[in-house]
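Appendix B. One record, verbatim.
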Amino acid sequence: MNLEYINAFTTSMWDILKNYLNIDSRKGAVEVKANTAPFKGVAVLVGITGTTTGKVIFDMDRDTGFRLTTKFNDEFHSEVNDIFIATLKEFGNVVCGKAITNMEKAGDGLDLTTPTLILGEHMVLAEERGTEIIMVSFHTGIGQIDINVIVNSVTHN
């Protein structure tokens, strides 16, 4: 997998947490998952289209989702409602948008799908055999947020 994609998304994640949300974080180890990854309970999925296809999934537990929503909106949130859903989807959109914009400068020609929020316990992301899922954990004061990047194909022009 091209590390340029991983670096773009993780750098964007760190930048949005630090400079937009004022959340200190430290990046954990990079893990390569064979083709499955368990979810913690709240996942934001954003598709990648264009010269590269794939997806980015932001994964966290429900309490971290509430704290992220609270920080993002500067008001307390403790229930799953339209604001919670819209905020977490927007978080995924902002992080991915920044990463794509930075890669766009290199001429990659990428676009994003509308974010999807997935809620549920004991769920697993499953991809076809041979698909690598690259996961990077961010340890923050509001909880752990994992970013999973899956690049399915790259078209060279």
